[in-house]
Design a protein that fits this description.
Length: 109
């Protein structure tokens, strides 16, 4: 049985790509594919997809779209400084586990 890993990023987070063809680009996470440990980042890892004509696209042709990136190649952007940071988990005042930026100690909303 495969062990479920707690992902440190989630939909809507601002991340920076730290490896691969899109290295250095930033964007919001559109979707997280938990079972594959991958995420789709807005404007990063663009691929050309050949599409057949359909109702939405009557001519068909080549469409540019985002492909999934492995989460090990992504780093969360610190809400305070704007630099990439690792993510930790801490209990807040209410006793609830929240994600915090390792660099600044800032809570990630």
């Amino acid at each position: 049985m495969e062990k479920k890993v707690k992902l440190k990023i989630r939909k809507g987070d601002l991340v920076k790509v730290i490896a691969g063809d899109s290295k250095g680009s930033q964007g919001k996470i559109v979707e997280v594919l938990v079972d594959k440990n991958r995420a789709i980042v807005e404007g990063a890892n663009m691929v050309s997809k050949h599409t057949k004509p359909n109702a939405a696209n009557p001519n068909g042709g080549i469409v540019k779209q985002e492909a999934a990136i492995h989460i090990s190649n992504l780093m969360l952007v610190d809400p305070k400084s704007g630099n990439p940071t690792r993510v930790g988990r801490q209990k807040n005042d209410a006793g609830k586990l929240v994600r915090v930026a390792k660099k600044s100690g800032e809570e990630i909303k």
